[in-house]
Design brief:
Elements lengths: L7 H7 L5 H18 L10 H8 L5 H15 L3 H9 L2 H4 L7 H21 L6 H23 L1
Helix pairs in contact: 2-8, 4-7, 4-8, 7-8
């Protein structure tokens, strides 16, 4: 007796439905990761400090990893940990330099602002925990894209 092989659609049909909010976070994370791959970041460069970043070379992945970490601390309102990070220059332990500090703050602020913009656009349908989840998904997508680009 021959066993029927499942069709390619059976696996999809057998999956549990994904809530709309989860699907939205996944899709926004993909778009957000694409934005972060651009340098300079897609912001309006109207102010002088922002123009300086536009002229600088694209930071390496260590800076992006630290920017995601700082953004999560910010969204979780972990003010003591955020303070400790800069007071004790934890970015140096991650292989960054003192000269990277301004770019780190710039990228971290961009990440936080993008997450908060989603919250504002959805009229606070997403909690801060959801926004942290968004950043974690974005980080995975960003580093996955980076790995594909270098392969």
């Amino acid at each position: 007796m021959r066993v029927k092989q499942p069709s390619r659609w059976d696996r999809i049909l057998d999956q549990k439905p994904k809530p709309l909010a989860e699907h939205l976070l996944d899709e926004v994370a993909k778009l957000f990761a694409e934005d972060l791959k651009q340098w300079p970041l897609p912001v309006e460069f109207e102010q002088r400090p922002a123009q300086d970043f536009a002229q600088a070379p694209r930071p390496d992945d260590r800076l992006y990893a630290q920017a995601f970490h700082l953004a999560e601390l910010d969204l979780q309102r972990e003010h003591d940990a955020y303070d400790d990070y800069f007071r004790n220059q934890r970015y140096l332990e991650a292989g960054l330099t003192a000269a990277d500090k301004a770019t780190l703050l710039f990228v971290s602020s961009f990440v936080v602002e993008q997450a908060l913009a989603l919250q504002e656009a959805t009229h606070t349908k997403f909690t801060r925990a959801d926004l942290v989840s968004l950043l974690q998904r974005t980080r995975r997508n960003f580093f996955h894209l980076e790995a594909k680009a270098t392969a």
